[in-house]
Design goal:
Layout lengths: L20 H14 L4 H6 L3 H17 L4 H14 L5
Length: 87
Amino acid sequence: MTQAEPSNQRISGLDLADADKRTEAILNAQAKKWGAPLINHRVYARNPDIFKAVRGMWGGLDKSGLIAADLSAMINRRVAFHNQCPF
């Protein structure tokens, strides 16, 4: 499943056909959860080291329990709103 990129997006996301197996699995899991891979993660995935680091950060935050899942979702939506990004 793919997500249409906004017309004002300056950097295109990784073509899912070019994703390695790990990245493809993560993006497919996002598509299952949210209906499409997250646009920012497709951009991060253009560089495997950046993608791994970003996923590590979010995974660490999730595992730490420092931010409740519902609060994290609310923060993400609010940041997206301020950045004028669809969420």
